[in-house]
Amino acid sequence: MKAVLYESFQRPPSLASVDDPTPEPHGVVVQVGATGVCRSDWHGWMGHDPDITLPHVPGHELAGTVVAVGRDVRNWRAGDRVTVPFVGGCGACPECHAGHQQVCEAQFQPGFTHWGSFAQYVGLHQADLNLVALPEAMEFATAASLGCRFATAFRAVVDQARVRPGEWVAVHGCGGVGLSAVMIAAALGAQVIAVDIDAEKLALARDLGAVACIDGSAGSVPEAVMQASGGGAHVSLDALGHPATLENSVLSLKRRGRHVQVGLLLADQARPAVPMDRVIGWELELYGSHGMQAHRYGAMLDLVRSGRVSPDRLVGRRIALDAAPEALMAMDRFQGVGATVITQF
């Protein structure tokens, strides 16, 4: 099969011919219909993820069709249209037994712990636990954006932040995760403040439901959020993953507010300073958010079916597999609006 492969970190990946995957007894092989190009893939290519073993095929936001099934799989057949969370569970550890596959002790992450979906085919593990059936009407490009950006935002807004109607929600960073969070929080009845330094992304955030937009390069972000919300946000999310946006998010909260860290902080930014004086004095709550379990996809897909959110609006540029190496290397430049998705293999 054709796949994007890199044999050393920070060196240009290439389009290569590699062996087709075969299913594990508990797994399946999926013919990839679409796969997103995400900043997390860029972090992996940079060498920021210790789970990656070289040579490596990246890609973790995927949707496609089952083409081969392991002997122990009971719930899936060839021809099924599926997607998968970017974090899958092992099914055997205490966290999996408690339903928390997103923090599984032996988690499976296509594109990180194993070869990923920048390829014509990808092998997926523990299929009966981790796969999600796709609605027939949902195209693969839209479904691919669910696996990381939209699902991550859904869990952050709904399960971790517990956003309620009428609350003020600040979203710092309007990339794929941030715009998804804007859309979801607005659909829940929140008053959303979007923060970014890109005017085009802020314009889309407003179209997706933000009631206020703040240029993050034009002065103090916490002061601007305080003013827009009349005293601070009930919930603030760092959807980018940077020490500055983390600090801005915490300082944007009202007393007893809730910060959710969604964007990854890796490499030399992995242990940033946090304004703990404010956290303690104002009794703020701090949460991490790491993907979403397959069993929570039903609630997210119900919201999509209701028409209150439209994740297809977040699909941006569509490219072929041979354009993926350049797109991957450019992810640190935050170019374009919406998700770049590989749709031609």
Automatic annotation (TrEMBL):
Annotated PROSITE patterns: ADH_ZINC
InterPro entries, per database record: ADH-like_C, ADH-like_N, ADH_Zn_CS, ER, GroES-like_sf, NAD(P)-bd_dom_sf, Zn_alcohol_dh
Record's keyword terms, sorted: Metal-binding, Oxidoreductase, Zinc
MF terms in GO: oxidoreductase activity, acting on the CH-OH group of donors, NAD or NADP as acceptor; zinc ion binding
Domain Enoyl reductase (ER) per the UniProt entry, residue ranges: 10-342
CDD domains reported in the protein's UniProt record: Zn_ADH6
Entry cofactors: Zn(2+)
SMART domains linked to this entry: PKS_ER
The family this protein is said to belong to: Belongs to the zinc-containing alcohol dehydrogenase family.
Name used for this protein in its record: Zinc-dependent alcohol dehydrogenase family protein
UniProt source species: Ponticoccus litoralis
Lineage: Bacteria, Pseudomonadati, Pseudomonadota, Alphaproteobacteria, Rhodobacterales
